[in-house]
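By way of example, we now present a protein record of this kind:
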Amino acid sequence: MITLGYSIIALMCLVALFYAFKLWRTHTNALTLMILIPLLFLWIDNFAIAAGRFVGEGALMTGMTYLRFYWHWQTVPLLIIVAGMLARRAGFGWAQNKIVMGVFCLIAVFFMIEDVPYIWQVTFQPACYGDTLRMVINVPADQICEGTTPFKQASPSPLPVITVNLVLMVVGFMMWWKDKFPWLALTCVFMFACAASGPALPGAAWTQILGNFGEPIFNAGLIAAGFRYAGRAKDGTAVPSPTPA
């Protein structure tokens, strides 16, 4: 059943990817591209767990693990820049300041550079729970696979993900207040609740799914915001429709 749950989430991520690609085709600009990029391989994050017990600890599982971790580390910080770009197109005066936008970019680049060393430092280890097998950096005590001896190692800070969620949440609530557009704020809150409640609910393996379940919902709100604001000019003004010939 847990494998089925992760398979469903992987499918949800593919649906989100489809609409992100549609958004990018509709409004081909830097904003929509940066919404699309983190979603390109998000589905693998769940597919690798769902397929783990079938493919085992071979080269395929290792390849998917490296891809899902490293793509996540290097692309999620882009959403901080997306938050600033959405704020600009939503017409918030503070976001029009180039220094403010530069701060958004610097924070994103800092988080990306900060995680680069882990590409060479971490060793992935098998973790088992329910009917799943996945590769992780540090194995929880209740997920040790039979016949393995896990070890502790340094892992990236969760601060980039938390920062992305909180910054987009703030921008989302501002959009809600200004434009009566609630979806970015609500999906950010949902994502935050899922990420926080999963580890806080011990004793049932399916609670591990909660954090992952929030990701496609969070991205749905981000894509909805893209459709709402990506067609506007960078200063938040509406782009006039072309005059018919």
